[in-house]
From TrEMBL:
Organism, as annotated: Zooxanthella nutricula
Parts forming coiled coils: none
Record keywords: Calcium, Repeat
Stretches assigned to the EF-hand domain: 110-145, 383-418, 423-458, 479-514, 515-550
GO molecular function, one term: calcium ion binding
Name of the protein this chain belongs to: EF-hand domain-containing protein
Cross-referenced Pfam families: EF-hand_5 (PF13202), EF-hand_7 (PF13499)
Signal peptide start-end: none
Stretches the record annotates as Disordered: 1-32
Family matches, as InterPro entries: Centrin_CML-like, EF-hand-dom_pair, EF_Hand_1_Ca_BS, EF_hand_dom
Length: 564
């Protein structure tokens, strides 16, 4: 410190000296304290002194000591000052990162994994930063998906704002994700309030666990397998317990909003994991996965329930693989295709099965089943092409060869495929986006044909899933539930989805269940509480279970009744 101070003293200013002062435009530097007072630098450590001192010595060898030394030292002082500022800034950033890391590690393990996976999948350049487009993809990966045009527009603007700075992982986690949640929550508040009031049957202003479970059943179960459904149910209980008010043992609207957001993100994570599992297990390529987007887990679960495990002939390890017969395939298709119960399509299925069974073993594996599903869909589209064309042209009034979403909705109402709820409308929009291959926002006739088939399948699949669960809860096994569904829909000649008491009496007689007309009428009236004049399938299985009691042997005759 002493060396540096002396070198910046003006000539003749040593202690005891009284040399005359030469006129100057600026006063000479009087050591480090003078520099600090002038605001030139922030020198705090001996290391800084050594750095400056070395530079001064270097300039002393260059001639004009008085001018050159002062100019060079001042530049170095400014450089060290900037260095200190940089170090302080880096220190603050390091401390902030440590805080963020602790906050991130405090999150639940599932949420941390979902955030990491979403960011990694969207970071296509692997540079640790996201563009606005990739940020939207990352948000979708964690379940923050825009459903309407308004939501898409607002989410796009949010991503552009966030990516003005480098959108690294922590900015994604602690800025983009929370802001997207708030924004989507604000936009969905009105529709969510309608759902909340609908499920709040007792008008208490809160939903208990039983009422909330109905939401889980409607929104997040149809395309999950057994494991996925188990994980989703566990996620529901965690979300409900977290947001429920203990004094009323239920969630108010604010808690309901937070619960739905958490469930949506959990569902996205679970379905992604189950899709990856199916892809690995069945060795499916990415193109096949893309062709069966949103349904591959459902199809695999359906296939697994009806196919039988057989040992692979060419596998030395004796690995087991599921394979299905043509009868099993017909049962599988009937779970999401209503027409699969009708003879014209059943004949087509038998023909396509022979094509899929390349080695003529009488059985096909899952990848061959997916091929068969695609071919059956093509067959159904071709069969209904003329009728679909007439309906399409009737709504295509300007003869443009395409329909917008409003015209598609009107046509779907006429075809009996209207969206009855907000989630049905959301599902319809997702399917429109999937079939709209040219991304024009309009649906051409070929796309419309595919869309009609997918919507009809989706509605039937959701209904079949609900009916299957009702049959299992009523005490019937998988085969008996399938037989009951065949019986029910074979007797439902008017396609109303209901059976009148005369048709129920026929079923009761065929399964040799002894019951008087008065008893049957009493049971039917009890289940037909809304006096619709008949029972739907879920009411039908509970009614039949009550009539049968514990007589399991009587139910075995259902198979023969179904085939008659």
């Amino acid at each position: 410190m002493h060396l540096l101070t002396n070198r910046f003293k003006a000539p003749g200013s040593e202690a005891g000296g009284g040399g005359g002062e030469e006129p100057r435009q600026e006063a000479p530097v009087q050591g480090l304290s003078d520099l600090r007072r002038r605001g030139v630098m922030l020198v705090k450590t001996e290391e800084d002194v050594k750095v400056i001192d070395a530079e001064v010595l270097k300039f002393e060898l260059m001639g004009d000591k008085r001018t050159t030394i002062k100019r060079g030292a001042m530049e170095r002082i400014k450089l060290v000052n900037n260095l200190h500022k940089l170090r302080k800034r880096q220190g603050r950033i390091t401390n902030l990162l440590k805080v963020r890391l602790r906050e991130f590690e405090a999150k639940p393990a599932e949420e941390r994994e979902a955030l990491r996976r979403g960011f990694k999948k969207a970071d296509v350049d692997r540079n640790g930063h996201l563009t606005a487009k990739n940020l939207r993809k990352a948000l979708e990966e964690v379940g923050l998906v825009a459903r309407s045009d308004v939501e898409k527009r607002e989410l796009k603007a949010l991503c552009e704002q966030v990516t003005v700075l480098d959108a690294d992982f922590f900015l994604f986690v602690f800025d983009a994700v929370p802001r997207a949640r708030r924004m989507l929550g604000d936009l969905r508040r009105a529709p969510l309030l309608q759902d909340f009031n609908f499920y709040d049957a007792d008008k208490s202003g809160t939903l208990d666990k039983e009422e909330s479970l109905k939401i889980l059943d409607r929104l997040y179960t149809w395309n999950l397998d057994v494991q996925g459904l188990s994980e989703m149910t566990a996620a529901f209980h965690r979300a409900f317990d977290l947001h429920a008010k203990k004094e009323v043992d239920g969630v108010d609207f604010q808690g309901f909003e937070a619960m739905i957001t958490q469930l949506q993100e959990a569902y996205t994570h679970i379905i992604h994991q189950r899709e990856q599992c199916v892809q690995r297990l069945e060795c499916l390529d990415d193109r096949t996965m893309e062709e069966h987007l949103d349904e591959v887990v459902f199809l695999h679960d359906t296939f697994s329930r009806w196919a039988e495990e057989v040992e692979e002939d060419d596998d030395e390890d004796g690995a087991m693989r599921r394979r299905a017969t043509v009868a099993a395939v017909q049962r599988m298709l009937s779970e999401f295709m209503r027409a699969a119960r009708e003879e014209p399509l059943q004949e087509a299925i038998r023909g396509l099965f022979k094509e899929a069974d390349t080695f003529d073993t009488g059985e096909i594996d899952f990848s061959e089943f997916l091929w068969l599903v695609r071919k059956v869909r093509e067959w159904v589209i071709q069969l209904a092409k003329d009728d679909m064309k007439v309906a399409f042209n009737r709504f295509d009034q300007n003869r443009s060869g395409s329909l917008d979403i409003c015209e598609v909705n009107k046509l779907f109402v006429e075809l009996g495929l209207s969206a009855r709820s907000r989630e049905d409308q959301s599902m319809l929009k997702r399917l429109v986006n999937q079939v709209d291959v040219d991304k024009s926002g309009l649906v051409e006739f070929e796309e419309f044909q595919v869309l009609v088939g997918r919507v009809a399948e989706r509605i039937h699949a959701v209904q079949s899933c609900r009916e299957r669960r009702a049959g299992l809860e009523a005490g019937f096994d998988e085969n008996e539930v399938a037989d009951l569904r065949d019986v029910f829909y074979s007797l439902d000649l008017d396609k109303s989805g209901m059976l009148a008491i005369e048709e129920l009496r026929h079923v009761v007689t065929c399964i040799r269940c002894v019951v008087s007309s008065e008893q049957l009428r009493e049971v039917v009236d009890r289940y037909d509480a809304e006096d619709k004049g008949g029972l739907d399938f879920e009411q039908f299985v509970y009614c039949l279970r009550e009539l049968l009691g514990n007589k399991k042997s009587s139910a075995t005759s259902l198979a023969s009744l179904a085939s008659s």
